[in-house]
Design brief:
Layout (H helix, E strand, L loop, with lengths): L1 E6 L11 H8 L4 E6 L12 E2 L9 E2 L1 H11 L5 E11 L2 H7 L4 E5 L8 H7 L4 E6 L8 H13 L9 H6 L17 E2 L2 E2 L9 H19 L20
Parallel strand pairs: 1-2, 1-6, 5-6, 5-7
Antiparallel strand pairs: 3-4, 8-9
Helix pairs in contact: 2-4
The protein binds adenine.
The site of adenine (ADE) has 12 residues, from strand 5 and helix 5.
Length: 239
């Protein structure tokens, strides 16, 4: 997969050389290019923003540099991701969809956002997804771009050594992941649940599923109703 990220703070994206995306780059699964938006300015001050039409606080990113940047780095057929707090929610399902694309271009806005005509213009030739990583406001799209790229890249075929760990983690099946434990079996007076030491794989699987359902009901009642996944006997105390 090729990923191009455009930002006025390209150094933010240095983190993608570390850890999992770094591994994917070295393995040849990810061809990542980070660009400075100011490359596509033509004035002495390399201006990327201006005051908003209609008034109001803050500055808006000018369409000119963005138009030229996307002409240069986003060929027809690429998918354009624009992180914005006013976007559609970025979920595991969206990450899985993006992981099937050959070429993602991420446009990181700053200030009050990018002139809307940039997205309108790009929509004529690219699929454009305006995505929010959560219901809070960051200073710009760079941290959201890190979130999107990391969540997508770890789903690329051949990326994770162990496909089971993808299947079992939170959100893979609409449920949060069950609690996990490692050695020692007793620590500061807290014991690992007995079932996990039993060697009985069916019982362990049933316990983990039950824990996932309980966690999801308690912490994320907004997710698909976990009672659907429960046997009637499990429902006591949850509903
Ligand atoms: N830019 C600023 N806040 C954001 C958010 N919550 N999601 C995506 N992009 C953003």
């Amino acid at each position: 997969m090729r990923v191009d990220v455009v930002s006025i703070f390209p150094a933010y994206l240095d983190a993608l050389d570390l850890s999992l995306p770094g591994r994917a780059r070295r393995a040849g699964l990810l061809d990542l290019h980070v660009h400075d938006l100011r490359t596509w300015t033509h004035d002495r001050h390399r201006t990327v923003d201006d005051t908003p039409y209609g008034g109001g606080a803050g500055m808006v990113m000018k369409p000119g540099p963005w138009g030229e940047a996307l002409d240069a780095v986003a060929p027809d057929g690429a998918t354009l991701v624009v992180p914005t707090p006013s976007g559609r929610p970025f979920t595991q399902a969206v990450a899985a969809d993006l992981a099937t694309r050959e070429h993602l271009v991420v446009a990181c806005g700053r200030y009050e956002g990018i002139d809307q005509r940039v997205v309108d213009d790009a929509s004529g030739r690219l699929e454009v997804l305006e995505l929010s990583v959560g219901d809070y406001v960051l200073n710009g799209g760079e941290v959201a771009a890190l979130v999107v790229v990391e969540a997508v890249v770890r789903l690329l075929p051949g990326f994770m050594g162990n496909a089971d760990s993808l299947a079992e983690e939170s959100h893979a099946d609409g449920l949060l992941e069950y609690p996990v434990y490692t050695k020692p079996a007793s620590w500061r007076g807290h014991d690992v649940p007995e079932v996990l030491l039993s060697g009985d794989h069916a019982r362990i699987a049933a316990w983990r599923h039950d824990q996932s359902v309980r966690r999801t009901a308690e912490r994320r009642p907004d997710l698909a109703h976990p009672a659907q996944a429960l046997g009637a006997a499990d429902l006591d105390g949850l509903l």
